[in-house]
Amino acid sequence: MIGKALASTDHPVMAHIVPMRRCNLSCAYCNEYDDFSPPVPLEVMYERIEKLHSLGTNIITISGGEPLLHPELDSIIARIRRCGIIEGMITNGYLLTAERIQRLNKAGLDHLQISIDNVKPDDISKKSLKVLDKKLQVLARYAEFHVNINSVVGGGVHNPQDALVIGRRALELGFTSTIGIIHDGDGQLKPLKPEEREVYLEMKKFEKTNYSRFNHFQEAIAHGRPNDWRCRAGARYLYICENGLVHYCSQQRGYPAVPLKDYSVDDIRREFLTEKSCAPHCTVSCVHQISYIDHWRAPQSAVALTANVDAHSGELVQIE
Fold first, then answer.
1. What is the pTM of this model?
2. Helices 73-82 and 42-54, packing angle to 10 deg
């Protein structure tokens, strides 16, 4: 995957795709769900997967909402794997059972991430270790795919020390452990308090180092400092909403808002070279990691103008 990415910049490395906007939870900090949307029809999902395949996408991660609510999720995963694409999923874990995990094994799931926000449920989040620990034990027993447990700090989480408890439990069960910072509604950094910063930096020691300089990037985030980097969203990373529009990420929905069926190499090349004004204080980790592959090349310009359709209003906007 890295070799292909280094050889050419004309294809996405990762795409997030949403088959289900509805969620069975309503965490106070989350802006990525509703409680009424129907599942995207299976044939429509197949068309989007084939389009991502034709663009040369290496990884597709299914997110939501809660993807396990989609009645034909196994077929979606299997189609991604038949295209030879690495397949992952982000879930709240509530709907996992031994039988469901075995079906995910059979479908070919490569990796799964569960975000756990606290040790005991509270008014901010019900994604707690107390509720989910038995689910994690079942995952440890039956899952044939990689499992990562992500905990968080910031955003009103009452006890930052909970993240350390969650991380240690994940490692104890044989999973990997990561930590993120809860961002505001635009995906921008909320400065961490001293205790939150200490927990964040301690948790980063649990993670495997994938890039020699990436921990320096995360350290700046923890201290509330801007990062000077080249966000390749819309090019190397695509976020496809339930309506089939391509967005920069889950927190910048509305840009560029081009239908995936019409997305082309020209769109990829344009967004690869377009500077994103939200980048300095961005906390969207998957975009950081994918973009960092190309940190050494192709300076970006803020002067390129792109006509876009706002996903919410349907009006043309100009991004500068």
1. 0.88
2. 20
